[in-house]
Amino acid sequence: MAAPWTESLSIEFKSDRKTLSENVIAEEVVALSNTDGGDLYVGIEDNGEVTGAQPQHRDAIQMAAVVANKTVPPVSVRSEVIELEGLPVLHLEVPQSASIIATSSGKMLRRRLKTDGKPASVPLYPFEITTRLSDLGRLDLTAQAMPDASVDDLDPMELIHLRRIVEDSRSGDKSLLELSDEELRRALRLTTTISEVEVPTLAGLLLVGRAGSLARLAPTAGAAFQVLEGTDIRVNATYDTPLLTTIEQMVAAIEPWNPVTEVSFGGLFNDPVPAFDRRAIREAVVNAFGHRDYSMLGRVRVLIDDGGFAITNPGGFIEGITVKNLLTAEPGGRNPCLMDALKRVGLAERTGRGVDRIYQGSLSYGRPLPDYSESNARQVRLFIARSEPDESFARLIVEERERTGKQLSLQALLVLDCLKRVRRASADVLEGEIDLQASRLRQTLEALTEAGLVEASGQGRGRTYTLSARVHSAANKGAEYVRQTDIDRLRHEELVLKLAEKSERVTNSDVCNLLHVDAPTAYAVLVKLVKENKLERHGKTRSTYYVAKR
């Protein structure tokens, strides 16, 4: 087995020249387990030089037992002794923990990168424990009682405001309107009971708390909104109100800076299209407040500038969620209590798939995809580029909706958008470009092919897809479609001729395998080359083969 030769957040080397303490081994296991898991190699120097493990560290079963005995709760590592450059090295494969791990002596550690970019194991401080448990989905901070708060810290006017939102919202839970204030607070878990006394939860304080109580008890609940034109600040507003008010005020403040463009849909009608989809913006704002880490200082920040719309919230993605699997990961969040209340009130997407709506807002008008690439462990940042709508693409989406009576799925929009950018791709290439399961991707491709929006050529793993002539025609890009198909045709002929020149004979089956096309397509290429006097045909039926003209 080969070991990596550089350390990282998930890889640690430890020298065993002076007989490494078992306590140190346990500490490194704890740090790895409290971060992302990883691999510990005992017997390798920090610079990657293999110096070997001491005899007492060469019993894999014993070392696994030592780690279990010196960690709380016990960490079950996969232990083995491997040989590197002729020397024995102890390799411990450390799983990521679903809780906080400590050494038996009470030390809690985690991994981090130092300022020089090198990894290190450092203390896990008490204030970081809440964030870590929240990231792991083991603690909902918003469901916790606020011990220094009372029901008097909740604003009765905000409860009236909440009822109005429920009444006005299409998705609001109307059964909430029949409840008394106390029943409403309990139904939405805005309060809980401690020693028979009703006490606000953090969710309750955030949603309907008095402004003064928020400042005193939940100082991390604020938000900021800025508008820049070049380097000139046009708007610089802060919000320290309950979330129900803050969300409404921020969405309203964004609207004047969201200009509208008239888009023509084939003479049927004109539609005013905003620079940023309104539903997507609202969902992004709600998500930022609903999923932020309330144990961290910092505000939810919305920025509109010449480049586009950006919203940033403190706290990275929770465990299991990454930029690459946003659209396929199971719905979940850091603050289930708060998000459940927002959904029942009617502010958040009831299905938990608000990010789908954000993507649809861009894709439906042929705009660039929403960008989460600047998100990290400390923040989630969404950027929506300022871009003119692709009128022909948007018109096609509307026409397809009129034809079928239903909206194109998000998966279909993702595939069409990708093919618009890469022009031609196999399912494997598309799978690498799109956050979509392989089976769902192939199902979507076949559905789009049947609908006449995508054309397929070839078979098996070599089957490729491109936007159909109908799509190019709708986009007034018929010449581009012809050019693309002509390029494919010429390339096919060149490849067949090269194969014929290098081989004594070429069969229809050979061409199918070479071009990843079906038998009729391969036969058509061969017949054309024979007519052009570039190939000679020999034999009949199954024994037919072709040779290059000399």
Summarize the structure.
With 550 residues, the protein is an alpha+beta fold.
- Largest sheet, strands/sense/barrel: 5 strands, mixed
The count of helical stretches stands at 19
Q: What's the gyration radius in Å? A: 30 Å
In spatial order, strands of the major sheet run: 12-11-15-16-17
Comma- or semicolon-separated keywords:
alpha+beta; five-stranded mixed sheet; 550 residues
Walk me through this protein's architecture.
The chain is α+β, with helices and mostly antiparallel strands and 550 residues long. Helix content is 38%, strand content 20%. It contains 19 helices and 22 strands. The strands form eight sheets. The protein has a five-stranded mixed β-sheet, with helices on one face. It is flat, with a radius of gyration of 30 Å. It starts with 10 loop residues before the first strand and ends with a strand.
Q: Helix and strand layout, with pairings?
A:
Layout: E1 11-14, H1 22-33, E2 38-42, H2 60-69, E3 71-72, E4 78-84, E5 87-94, E6 102-103, E7 109-113, E8 119-123, H3 126-135, H4 156-168, H5 181-187, E9 191-194, E10 197-200, H6 202-208, H7 211-217, E11 223-229, E12 232-239, H8 243-254, E13 260-264, E14 270-274, H9 278-291, E15 300-304, E16 308-314, H10 336-345, H11 354-363, E17 379-385, H12 391-404, H13 410-422, E18 424-426, H14 427-433, H15 438-450, E19 454-457, E20 464-467, H16 469-474, H17 478-502, H18 508-515, H19 519-531, E21 535-538, E22 545-548
Parallel strand pairs: 1-2, 11-15
Antiparallel strand pairs: 2-5, 3-6, 4-5, 7-8, 9-10, 11-12, 13-14, 15-16, 16-17, 18-20, 19-20, 21-22
